[in-house]
């Protein structure tokens, strides 16, 4: 039996959320062992009390889970669980991340992505900023994450697609439902060139509480979050607060202090979000990280700065670095060793990558 059926089964048991699911998997090692576990075994797991242990033991019917599984197969909806190789690595850092994702399109692996969110009824000011921002990010092949809502979300996805950039729409419904319906064409284009993902099973309608979970998932997936325009009670503000909670880089576009549609973005800046003034607000930091963030070494040579720029996103072998740098001298290995000893980089299995402790 496909173990994804068991993940669906566990995700549908009331009271069993992502944290407890991870505790169960860590304890029993495999989902099928969780399914076969007795009351006496389950009671030993952290977070599982008498009530939950009984609920799990008494709910072994897989008919509903199989129904969802085969519905996904018929509808070409991918089921990605926490044990699948293409489960986003970003989510592995959070115990409360969904254990199962439903996907239409192709969920590619990515190292970094920018989440762009904002008002549904956006102004011309925020629309222009969104278009310019997304175009600049797309030129650099930085994936765009948004929620496929009207306004800012829709513009960010559309501009990314027009620039052949990868975009992910995180939705608060099942991936077989288009909400809003006006974005059906956009949704189909995202499926062709990117991915539409949801933690909710197919057929799930637009329940308000689901969009809160959707916003949290976007914050988990993104490296940076940019709120272009939002009122104080906007879902985009909740996404930004989640980003702050998860130690993500959060940016906010300043707006007219007398305009209600900018109350939320201005508030975020007062709470510590970085003001987004132009694309340099984001890209500048990625360039300067090489020379400023690692101990502020004033003696860092130009070749070392160039190496750090090259491996800032992807690891490389020594030979790949030589080609990229057009390096003809024989002492590159010595330079790399010196950088490793100073904590700038690390070498693993023949590849050079940035040292996460240094950055």
UniProtKB/TrEMBL annotation:
Keyword list (alphabetical) reads: DNA damage, DNA repair
All copies of domain Helix-hairpin-helix DNA-binding motif class, residue ranges: 8-27, 40-59
Primary gene name: dprA
Q: What is this protein called?
A: DNA-protecting protein DprA
Highest taxon of source: Bacteria
**Gene3D superfamilies under this entry?**
3.40.50.450
Q: Which InterPro entries match?
A: DisA/LigA_HHH, DprA, DrpA_SLOG, Hlx-hairpin-Hlx_DNA-bd_motif, RuvA_2-like
Q: Which SUPFAM superfamilies match?
A: MCP/YpsA-like, RuvA domain 2-like
The UniProt similarity line reads:
Belongs to the DprA/Smf family.
């Amino acid at each position: 039996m496909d173990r994804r059926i068991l993940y669906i089964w566990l995700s549908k048991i009331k009271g069993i959320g992502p944290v407890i699911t991870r505790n169960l998997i860590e304890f029993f090692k495999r989902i099928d062992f969780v399914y076969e576990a007795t009351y006496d075994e389950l009671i030993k797991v952290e977070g599982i009390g008498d009530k939950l242990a009984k609920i799990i033991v008494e709910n072994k019917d897989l008919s509903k889970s199989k129904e969802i599984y085969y519905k996904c197969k018929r509808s070409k909806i991918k089921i990605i669980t926490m044990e699948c190789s293409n489960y986003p690595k970003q989510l592995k850092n959070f115990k409360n991340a969904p254990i199962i994702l439903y996907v239409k399109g192709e969920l590619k692996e990515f190292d970094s992505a920018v989440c762009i969110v904002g008002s549904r009824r956006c102004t011309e000011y925020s629309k222009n900023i969104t278009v310019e921002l997304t175009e600049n990010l797309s030129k650099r092949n930085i994936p765009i994450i948004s929620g496929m809502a009207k306004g800012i979300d829709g513009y960010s996805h559309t501009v990314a697609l027009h620039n052949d950039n990868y975009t992910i729409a995180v939705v608060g419904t099942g991936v077989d439902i288009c909400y809003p319906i006006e974005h059906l064409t956009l949704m189909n284009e995202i499926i062709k060139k990117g991915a539409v993902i949801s933690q909710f099973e197919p057929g799930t309608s637009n329940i308000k509480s689901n969009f809160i979970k959707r916003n949290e998932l976007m914050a988990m997936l993104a490296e940076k979050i940019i709120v272009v325009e939002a009122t104080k009670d906007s879902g985009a503000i909740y996404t930004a607060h989640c980003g702050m909670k998860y130690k993500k880089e959060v940016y906010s576009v300043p707006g007219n202090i007398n305009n209600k549609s900018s109350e939320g973005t201005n508030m975020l800046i007062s709470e510590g979000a970085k003001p987004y003034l132009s694309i340099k607000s984001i890209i500048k930091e990625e360039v300067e990280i090489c020379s400023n963030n690692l101990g502020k070494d004033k003696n860092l040579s130009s070749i070392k700065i160039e190496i750090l720029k090259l491996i800032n996103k992807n690891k490389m072998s020594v030979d790949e670095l030589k080609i990229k740098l057009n390096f003809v001298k024989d002492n590159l290995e010595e330079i790399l060793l010196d950088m490793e000893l100073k904590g700038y980089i690390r070498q693993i299995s023949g590849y050079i990558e940035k040292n996460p402790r240094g950055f």
